[in-house]
Amino acid sequence: MNNPGSSAPAPRLASCTYAAPLPGGAGLTELLTTGSECTWIRGGEGMVGLGTAARFTTTGSGRFEAARRWWMAATAAEAAESEGAHRSTVPDDGLPRRSPLAFAAFAFADDSPVDSVLVVPEFVLGSAHGRSWLTWQVDLDSPRYSERAATGWRPSRQDAERRLAELLAEAGPAGSAEPAVPGEPAGEGLELSDGVLSQEGYRAAVVRGVRQIEAGNLTKLVLARDAVVRSEDPVDVPRVLHTLTERYRDCWTYAVDGLIGSTPEMLVKVDGDTARARVLAGTLDRDGAPLGTAGAGYARQLLSEDPKQRHEHRLAVDSLTERLEPFTTSLQAPDAPFVLELPNVWHLATDVTARLVGAEGVRRTGPGALALTEVLHPTAAVCGTPREAAAALIAELERAEHGLDRGLFAGPVGWLDGNGNGEFGIALRGAVVEDPHTVRLYAGCGIVAASDPEAELAETHAKMRPMLQALGLQA
After folding, report:
1. Long-range contacts of 454-459 (CB under 8 A, 24+ apart)
2. Would you say 412 and 426 are in contact if contact means Cβ atoms under 8 Å apart?
3. Rounded to a whole number, what is the largest CA-CA distance in the chain?
4. C-alpha 471, offset from chain centre
5. Is the peptide bond before 378 cis (omega within 30 degrees of 0)?
6. What sign results for the dihedral spanned by CA atoms 116, 120, 124, 129?
C-alpha cells in the first residue's frame, strides 16, 4: 500500500510573522479551548496552531516522501519571493524564522491504513525566551484570498489582527482549561477497559517475543498494547493537554489531528546546521520507590547498574547514531547515559548532537528535519534490533494475532518549517481521541532475552499513567 497523497493540489502559502503578546496576555495553554488546536509545548514554551489553512494526508511506505513533495510545493511561492535575500534562522528582530510552518504526525508502520497528516494552521502563536510572536498563514489560491492575491495582495499585520480576532471569537474564551489536580478523586463517568490487545494477550506476546530473541532471530523487540477510556461527558481535551504541560514540563506536549500526549523522547530536532536527539530506553516505575534523594540514588542503581537496562539502552542509541552519522560532519553521543526523572518513571537517557552536511543558509541543501525523520524512524527504542526483523515480528504479534494497529502511536510527531528546520518527537505517553467520548491509549516496552512478562506489563501501566492522570482516572 503506497498512497501518493491527497489528490488536492498543494496550496500556495504566504505568511507574515511579527512580535506580539499572546492574546489576552495568556500563556500558550490558555489558547487551547476547542481541542482541535495543534500543540507543541515544553517548559511553558513552544507553539499553538489555530484554524486550518491547508491539510494533507497520505499513507504507505512513501508517506514521508509524499509529504515532503507536497510541502515543497506548498512553500515554493514564499521561497521564490525570498530567493536572493539574506534570511537567517534568527533575523534581526530576534524572532525565529519558522514560516510557513506545519504540524505533522506520521503512522508508525509502512502498511498502516491510518492517515499520516500535515496540518498548516491559519495562525501559529509562539513563545520562547521571554518573547512571543504570531504567524499568519494563508493559501493564496483559496476562495477566501484568491481574488485579492490576484491583485498582488499578501498577508499583513493589520489583516492578521483582524482575522485572528474573528477566529478567537469563533473558538470561545481563552483560559477555560484548568489542569487536573493530583490527589483529586477519579473523574466520574469514566471507564477504563482493555483494548484490542488485552493484558493477558500482552503477556503471551512477550513470552513469544522472548523465545524469538533466545532463538537468535533478533536482539530486541518493542511490543505495545492499547487501552480504552470511555466518558459519559465529552472528553475535555484542552484540560488534558493543560495537565500534561504542567505535570510533564520536561516533555514535549503535542496535539495534532486528534493525537495527543506528552513525549519524553526527541527523534530529531534540526535548527540550521545542527541536529539533536534524545534517546530513551530503560525504564523504572516510580510508584512505590523511595522519595527524594534516596529515590534518585535508587533509580541510578537499578537502571545504570542493571545489565538488562544498559543493554536495551545501548541498542537504542546505536540504532539512531548509525543511521544519522552519514548525514553529519561530526556527531557526539556520550558513552554513559544519564537518568531522566519524570513524575511517573525514571529513564536512561542519552542526548545526541550532530553537525549536518550541506546545511548552508535558510533554504538548506542538506537534509532537513523531515528527511532525517524518515531516515531515523523507527529507532530501536520503539521497534527493535535488527529493525526489519523486529518490525516483521511486531506486525505478527500485535496486528496479525490480536488486530492491534499502532496507527500514529510511536510514529514521529512535531513540526517543520519551509527552511528545513523542525522538531519531531516520538508519539509516546499519548492517546488518540477517536470520538468525543472515546480515547484510546497506547504503551510499549522493550523486550530483550531477560524480560519478564509480568514486569513488562507493569511497565505499560506506568507509561499509561500520565494520560490516565490527565483524563482524571488516576491520582
Report:
1. 454/203, 456/202, 456/203, 456/206, 456/223, 457/199, 457/202, 457/203, 457/206, 458/285, 459/283, 459/285
2. yes
3. 69
4. 19
5. yes
6. positive
Q: What SS3 class is residue 222?
A: strand
Measured CA to CA, the distance from residue 175 to residue 170 in angstroms comes to: 15
For residue 334, cis peptide bond before it (omega within 30 degrees of 0): no
The pTM for the full model equals 0.91
How would residue 349 be classed by pLDDT, with cut points 50, 70 and 90?
A: very high
Mean pLDDT, range 77-93, rounded to an integer: 53
Element (H, E) at 259: strand 259-263
Rounded to the nearest 5 degrees, what angle is found at the Cα of 370, between the Cα atoms of 366 and 371?
Answer: 50
Distance CA 107, CA 3 (A): 13
C-alpha cell at 55: 491539510
| All domains of the chain in start order, with CATH | 13-171 (no CATH), 192-236+253-471 (3.60.120.10)
Identify the active-site residue in 220, 312, 423, 463.
220
Element housing 245 (H / E)? helix 237-247
Displacement of CA 94 from its chain's centroid (Å): 26
Coil vs helix vs strand at 167: helix
The pLDDT tens digits of the residues spanning 150-193 come to 999 999 999 999 999 999 998 876 554 566 554 454 456 899 99
Is residue 463 flagged as an active site residue? no
Q: Is residue 265 annotated as a catalytic residue, yes or no? A: yes
Using CA atoms, how far apart are residues 465 and 429, in angstroms rounded to an integer? Answer: 8
Is it the case that residue 16 has pLDDT exceeding 50? yes
Q: Which of 145, 98, 195, 161 is nearest to 467 (CA)?
A: 195
- pLDDT higher than threshold 70 for residue 462: yes
Which among 232, 148, 124, 134 is positioned nearest to 188, based on CA atoms?
A: 232
> Any idea which residue has 535558510 for its cell?
362
Between CA 192 and CA 59 the distance in angstroms is 30
Side chain identity, residue 207 = V
Type of residue numbered 344: N
d(CA 10, CA 56): 8
- Among residues 30, 78, 122, 265, the one annotated as catalytic is 265
C-beta atoms surrounding 43 within 10 Å = 12
The single-letter code of the amino acid at 283 is T
Spatial contact of 227 and 192, defined as CB atoms under 8 Å apart: yes
Name the residue type at position 48.
V
In angstroms, the CA 52 to CA 181 distance is 32
Strand partners, 301: none
